[in-house]
């Protein structure tokens, strides 16, 4: 039996607050084999480090040089705009190897992520899905706690993903 192209992922910590809450269910799609991930996308990862599926945001892409300076992240000496991230105190530098990604939680000081893992880089094969953050009617005219960058990056990734119509048909077919 093949894996479904879409499922719901339960967020199991406050590391992505305030955009994603502990216990929240988020529609997740399987990335295509040659999918090119974008910075800012929230992903479900089968972490070898932690031994379970986790939810984090991609901050570093293969080949990036990152510098974390408290509440600021610099990518190749360019300041990364992160309206979704909380203040942090961590300072370090990282060089992301080919075929790997650097992940952070949005609630920086409450997140176990690439900054503290023994193996800070996640391989492409560990990324199980892309979380789709759908805007509610309430948020369309107001601030989005998940951040504008998240919404835009996820929308771009959705264009490359299977349509929800084909996903619904796939799920219905397997349910029979």
UniProtKB/TrEMBL annotation:
Residues 139-176 are annotated as: Disordered. One of its GO terms (molecular function) is signal peptidase activity. It is an enzyme of class 3 (hydrolase). The gene is lepB. It is a single-pass type II membrane protein. Keywords: Hydrolase, Protease. This is Signal peptidase I. It is found in: Cell membrane; Membrane. Coiled coil: none annotated. SUPFAM superfamilies: LexA/Signal peptidase (SSF51306). Residues 165-176 have a biased composition (Low complexity). Residues 9-129 form the Peptidase S26 domain. Its EC number is 3.4.21.89. It comes from the Bacteria. It catalyses: Cleavage of hydrophobic, N-terminal signal or leader sequences from secreted and periplasmic proteins. Belongs to the peptidase S26 family.
